[in-house]
Amino acid sequence: MAAAGSAIGLGSVWKFPYTAGANGGGAFVLLYIIFTLLIALPLFMGEVVIGRKSQKSAIAAYGELSGDSSNWKMLGWFNVIACFIILAVYSVVAGWCLSYILMSLTGFTQGKSPEEIRAVFDTLYASPDINLFWYTIFILLNVGVVMGGVKKGVEKWSKILTPALLLILVGLFLYGIQMDGFGQAARFIFYPDFSQLTAVGILEALGVAFFTASVGLGIILTYGSYLKKSEDIPKNAIIVLSLTVCVSILAALTIFPIVFTFNFPPE
Questions:
Q1: The overall pTM is greater than 0.85
Q2: Are 217 and 86 contacting, i.e. CB atoms less than 8 angstroms apart?
Q3: How sure is the predictor about 7, in pLDDT bands with cuts at 50, 70 and 90?
Q4: What is the pLDDT of residues 130-163, one digit of tens each?
Q5: What distance in Å separates the CA atoms of residue 221 and residue 212, rounded to the nearest whole number?
Q6: For 88-129, how does the pLDDT look when each residue is reduced to its tens digit (9 = 90+)?
Q7: N or C: at which end does the chain have fewer Cβ atoms within 10 angstroms?
Q8: Predicted confidence band at 174 (pLDDT cuts at 50, 70, 90)?
């Protein structure tokens, strides 16, 4: 659940749908699945193997297994720097999510037109004070979880929040099935039109496959360092990435029925 919670995040729920929309839908989705199975899955297993073998963090693991090579240690530092940059972006977006939770509980959409609802986000996006406030709240929540370590912090909360996310998505999916645009959305996602795919789209599909699998960042390597020797690495990897792909497609099937019902452009 901890590894799935890392992989199933903004990459699956947010980045995958809008990237699929911008790249024509079905063909992009097909390539994403192929890249996940053929490239991201072996990399995922490789990181788990490195982590379990060394029982150390990314920098120390690469150093130990390479005979203290400075070049391999540098790769570990790149992992840490990449995570730091992603955290900077995630924290702002997650702050928006916290803001929307509060606004939704107060019924902020009632009596507003779609244009007025959109203007609410434009105000949030442009306000340094509001962004900084929710960013700080999100960082403090993260500190509270991470202080418990992987087992008592990340893993404990992942067992609660990851199934909760899946439950919410399934509920929204069932709601989306009843919308007029569901059939058009399903065709858009599952019917590959390769005429809509560009070289940039192919590269985007590869990037999203890496991003949703959390590979190349040292995250899965770190989780691997906590894995018991008796655990089946291929089995765990297949379970986690299968969940990731399913949630990505479920998120798309939740969002695109709304998009097509209200005649928004897919991108």
A1: no
A2: yes
A3: low
A4: 999 999 999 999 899 888 887 788 888 888 888 8
A5: 15
A6: 888 999 999 999 999 999 988 888 887 888 889 999 999 999
A7: C
A8: very high
Handedness of CA 118, 254, 22, 93 (dihedral sign): positive
- Long-range contact pairs involving 194-201 (C-beta distance under 8 Å, separation at least 24): 194/27, 195/24, 196/23, 196/24, 196/25, 196/27, 196/28, 197/23, 197/24, 197/27, 197/28, 197/31, 198/23, 200/23, 201/23, 201/24, 201/27, 201/28, 201/31
Q: Given the structure tokens 């749908």, which residue do they identify? A: 17
Contacts (Cβ under 8 Å, ≥6 apart) of 223: 2, 3, 6, 48, 51, 150
Listed residue (52, 94, 108, 62) closest to 226, CA to CA: 52
Unique residue bearing structure tokens 């909760």: 164
